Every structure is written in structure tokens, then in C-alpha cells.
Amino acid sequence: MNAKEFGLKLKEIRKEKNLTLLDLKKRTGYSDSYLSQIENGYKDLPKPDLIRRLATGLGVSHIFLMKLAGYANSYIDVENAPNMCEGISKKSQNDNKVIDVTLPSTEEIKMENGEQTIRELSVDELRRRLFDLHDLLNMKVDLYYKDTFLTDEERKKIRTLLELIFE
């Protein structure tokens, strides 16, 4: 997505939320003229920090806006979104390390008119997908079994076996 497309989508989200540029200014701390320039595509695609502030101001997930801006791997920020990460990121009891997990936070949906749109997944959907074998096997993420990377062919075999067992 380019800056103009991102800006148009941002404006659409803002208007759906019944917010003016002045409202968004108050919520983000950025001037209304700067926000207008972003919405009209006169600025480059925002950096992740600005996207986070825009998302907070708009009341949407920063991961959703990151995806719209074209950041392919949107990470769940454990410190800034602790409720979202419950069950997705966990601390090891032995060394208290935080484990970040990258999940696709949106899915593309083909509309009846043939256009494609992006739908943001809810926190519950993200949690379910993290532990749903079917979803994991279909995600475009690296999967391993006993430290061995699973190829597409191996994933297909696993899906077939699971279908035989459960269906």
C-alpha cells in the first residue's frame, strides 16, 4: 500500500469513528494539518511509533494499521498490550524471558463484488489461531517439529492425518 492509499483508509476509519481532525489531534498530539497531510498522501507512510499513536487515537489495533501500512510482520508488543498477549506470549518460569510470537493479525476477504478487503482479527481469534492446529498449519509462518522445519508437503501430510483422525 502506498502513502495515498494508506491515508485514504485512515480518513475512512476516522470518519467511521465520527472523529474530526481536531479530535484526532487531541488524541494523538499531532497537529491537524500534519494529520491532514498524512490522510491526503502528502507524507510518506508513517513509521511504527506514529502508527501506534494513530491507532490509539482512532481506537483501533496498531497491528491492523501496521498491516495496512505494509509492515509485513506486525509484532505483538508485550509491554504495551499485555491483555492482548495473554496466552500468546508467556514468560518461562525458569528464566523470565519474554517470547514474542508473530501472528498474522488480519485476513484478506474477497467481497461479493470481487474486491478484496482486510479484516482485523479479534484478540480471541488470535488466541484461538495460535493453538488451533488447522490454522497453524495453514498460516504463512515457519513451523517446526522437534527442531525440524516443516515443508509445505509435510504440512499437507499432517493436515491429511488430522482429517482422518478427527473428521
Automatic annotation (TrEMBL):
InterPro entries: Cro/C1-type_HTH, Lambda_DNA-bd_dom_sf, TransReg_Diox_bact_type
Superkingdom of source: Bacteria
SUPFAM superfamilies referenced in this protein's UniProt entry, alphabetically: lambda repressor-like DNA-binding domains (SSF47413)
Keyword DNA-binding in annotation: yes
Stored Pfam families: HTH_3 (PF01381)
Transmembrane segments: none
Recorded coiled-coil stretches: none
This protein's UniProt keywords: DNA-binding
Stretches assigned to the HTH cro/C1-type domain: 10-65
Gene3D superfamilies according to UniProt: lambda repressor-like DNA-binding domains (1.10.260.40)
Name under which the protein is recorded: Transcriptional regulator with XRE-family HTH domain
Lineage: Bacteria, Bacillati, Bacillota, Bacilli, Bacillales
